[in-house]
Amino acid sequence: MIKTMISKSVIGKIKGERLFCGLDIGSRTIKTCLVKYIEEHKPELLGVYEAKTSGFKDSSVSDLAELSECIHATIEGLTQKTGVKLKEVQLGIGGELIVKRFTSTVVPLLEKGSKVIASNDLKKVQTQARLLGMNMEEEIIHDIPQYYRVDDINTAINPLGLLGRKLEIKSLLVLANMTLIRNITKAVNQAGYDVASLFFTSFVSSQVLLDEKLRREGVALIDIGSRVTDILIFKDGLLKYLDNIAFGGDDFTRSIATQLNLTFDLAEDIKKSYAVALSSDIKEDEEILVKKESEYVPIKREVIFHCIDPVINQLVEVILNSLKASNLSDQLNTGIVMVGGGSLLPGLIERIEQSTNLLVRMGKLNCIAKNLNNTAMFSSVIGLAQGGFDKLAVFSMNSNGQEKNFVSRICNHIKEVYQEYF
Ligand SMILES: Nc1ncnc2c1ncn2[C@@H]1O[C@H](COP(=O)(O)OP(=O)(O)OP(=O)(O)O)[C@@H](O)[C@H]1O
Ligand SMILES: [Mg+2]
Predict the structure, then answer these.
(1) What are the beta bridge partners of residue 47?
(2) Model confidence over 267-284: pLDDT tens digits?
């Protein structure tokens, strides 16, 4: 049970200043940050904090009290660092929780003649596409229109002001299961915070890592988490492809643990301190001493490399297959940008570069905290804060925890009618 109630005010706030807290509940690590925005000033990162996730397993809440405690302790850690008490967070989810789906539909504008397309027409076709593209138990996290088509012939990114008789849309929806979201939100509320908005972490990361030029010319963002690797491809300024692969940094750890008969936690420490993805980085006969039960045993660094080498090959292969499946691999003119804790394995970037023949580099923030040390781990929370500031969310909450989402309300109504009659 959480005993300390969080003050619902932000202390030390100056006029015109707005503070946004990002909270990313990952399978292994929970991360948070606080970003300050003052009109006409560059956003300033006030602090970041991370802790081990608990009470959250297989992408769902396994222990509500434990997860709430974990969220509370993490945000409290941020408060200690920044001196700012927080009321609400911009919540991020990712990994296996995320479902992606393309949807398309067409609406008539006029029976006869043509009409100037207005923003209401865009809203109408977008709402219809969302309703058709989502299942009953899902919630839309992001909706990314790919193109509009007017009267079957004129394809436009923005059809406002064009003349037409019917309007078609194709969108990429990022969705998640409503019950899973509600349970995560409940844990945040129980920890003492409101959820202002909900985002897909890799998508908001892309907004603070990839500038317009990269997104226009073609780039892939690869986010290697602990259980899942997300691949996002941008071209012509739009997210065109999204794939989530059940493969992550924990697969390397598990392989070390199994082959060397070690606990997962010990294998994790060894991986973070000694594992490399390139054998050329290992000096001959280099050894480490590992405490196994009561004695220290020497393990050759090369042996650790051989434990993870086949797993790296598998990861590289699934990345290659995914890029191929996107049909966009020959349009990645600015290469690949990597983030996520899993990408911190030394030499992994080079391995991906060798097999894809593309330029691969670690992500760098394009506006806030350009010199943050651990961008791979914290770009998600900084993207969440920025998403909150930019009001990017499709899905937002009222302070009483109810969804403000328009589509949500319509869907709930449809569900009620459905349940009444069937
Ligand atoms: N220095 C490092 N070297 C190698 N791997 C690392 C390093 N630091 C962290 N990792 C790995 O990164 C993974 C955690 O990354 P991250 O925090 O991005 O995942 P997550 O958000 O918890 O997971 P997911 O996104 O799958 O829910 C773990 O597998 C961890 O072992
Ligand atoms: Mg993650």
Answers:
(1) 34
(2) 999 999 999 999 888 888
Residues 6+ apart with CB under 8 A from 244: 95, 96, 98, 100, 228, 229, 230, 231
Region class of 8: left (phi > 0), else alpha (psi between -120 and 50), else beta: alpha
Q: What is the mean pLDDT of the chain?
A: 90
Structural domain of 104: 99-178
> How much is the pLDDT for 2?
36
Ligand 1 closest atom vs CA 268: 31
pLDDT band of residue 172 (cuts 50, 70, 90) is very high
User: DSSP state, 283?
Assistant: P
Higher pLDDT, 420 or 346: 346
pTM as predicted: 0.90
Q: How many domains does the chain have?
A: 2
Ligand 1 lined by 253 (C-beta under 6 Å): yes
Which residue has the CA at smallest separation from atom 1 of ligand 1? 272
Cβ of 272 less than 6 Å from ligand 1:
yes
| 1 close to 75: Cβ distance less than 8 angstroms | no
Domain boundary among 119, 153, 178: 178
- My answer on whether 359 and 221 are in the same domain is yes
Ligand of minimum distance to the alpha carbon of 225: 1
Check pLDDT > 60 for residue 343.
yes
Residue 206 lies in a domain: no
| Model confidence band, residue 3 (pLDDT cutoffs 50, 70, 90) | very low
CATH assignment of the domain containing 319: 3.30.420.40
Does residue 90 form part of some domain? no
